[in-house]
Amino acid sequence: MVSLIQYFTQQPKQRWRQLQWAIGAFFIGVLIVYLAATFEWQWLFYIGAGVMGLAVLYALPAYLALIIWRIYSSRNNRRS
């Protein structure tokens, strides 16, 4: 588990890119939910909610890895 966390935190550019994709997918889900509310289509609402949920699940590891990377990089900068 520790090696997996170290692997994720040592690649901030890749995690940042993953976070950007997830944010884009989340806003696509918001757009789908908006269209579902406009046209009152329940099935489209569920699709949009699913897209938003998957985007959050996709973004969560990247977000946590970037936070951990930032904490450790600031600690290392103080020690230098």
TrEMBL record:
The keyword Transmembrane applies. Keywords: Membrane, Transmembrane, Transmembrane helix. The keyword Membrane applies. The chain crosses the membrane at residues 21-37, 43-69. It comes from the Bacteria. InterPro entries: MFS_trans_sf. SUPFAM superfamilies: MFS general substrate transporter. This is Uncharacterized protein. It comes from Pleionea litopenaei.
